[in-house]
Amino acid sequence: MTADRPSRLPLTSDQWHAVSASFLGWTLDAFDFFVAIFLVETLAAQFHVSASKIIDTTWATLAMRPVGAVIFGFLADRYGRRTPLMANVVFFSVVELLCGFSTSYTMFFILRTIYGIGMGGEWGVGSSLAMESVPPKWRGTISGIVQSGYSSGYLLAAIAAKVVLPFWGWRAMFWAGGLPALLAFYIRWKVKETEAWKQNRMPRFGLIAKAAAAHWKLFVYLIGLMALMNFLSHGTQDLYPHFLQSTHGFSTSTVANIAIFYNIGALVGALIFGKLSERIGRRRSLVAATMVALCIIPAWAFGKTLLVLAAGAFLMQVGVQGAWGIIPAHLNELSPGEVRGLLPGLAYQLGNFVASPVNRIEDVLHHSFGYSWALAGFEIAVIVLLALVVSLGPESKGKEFLREGRGVPG
Length: 410
Fold this sequence. Notes:
Layout: H1 13-34, H2 40-47, H3 51-79, H4 82-99, H5 105-133, H6 139-168, H7 170-176, H8 183-190, H9 195-200, H10 205-213, H11 216-237, H12 240-248, H13 252-280, H14 282-302, H15 306-324, H16 327-334, H17 343-355, H18 358-369, H19 371-392
């Protein structure tokens, strides 16, 4: 098949390579983050600290993500999407590998903080690569595919907790996170630079900063939107395995099984609502997904049996990741072409920074009101506010990324 000949699928070979690189990058990045989520009690015992101290490392990772978004976002708008994406993948893979050699809590905390820089850079570069490579009519569907990489990474981490941890120990979980560095070779050999970047490329970093500053009102809105989105996702995912262990007494293996199950729901949600957004628009689809999450909170937080909790977790992530499945397309369509590598990713990660205390907040609420009420009350407030912000915000569904329609992908 030649590069410009459509395959039986709706995208060309070159377009699928761009989408695959973005999806795999986000999958492997998420895997590296969620490995630590399944090791809270294990690492606390290893380093002789409380579980709250290990939870603090997730805050440090989330808080450093804007730094990565700035560094790799500027590089992506100045030098293209491919090379910064390769550098990013190698960076976060090497740091993850080093986490497995930690000999103290301090060393582990520092490495997880540095890892946050790599995690923060991947999404903006990868999503702009994918969204600029595909035709506008497929943007919503591909958005769901790309964003489902996050759930796929969580799913892989859950599988690793069942397979790797019992046989090779916690260090091997992090060492496995070094393997994604090999993705850089695939990007180098198979992925082409986007025409949209070539048309909008900026010759100097100063001009990129000036272009971004000119759209500050949009930028502020996107930060607020992404803060709420991150309160939604991290607030329903990060501490849920610990909630199942500490409140219901489930074993690590059982919790991993539940996590595998609800991440399948996340994959389903991202694909369904991403595609739905092509029919009814980005905002309506996003609000609809959050309503699914809102309605299932009683089963998700207050279920008494394994079956009810598992079903609640599955449907919760259908809604949560259904909303997230729309975000790559929505943010890239709202962003100006000359700063599309920087603005979506930086807004995402600054929103993530605002939401970075989410685990600490829920942990404090947990000790004051109980785990179930902490999770439920926090997420009800988040979902209601998020639906309002999305409903009142802008939308640019189907926006053309290429000037005068020249060289439209596919």
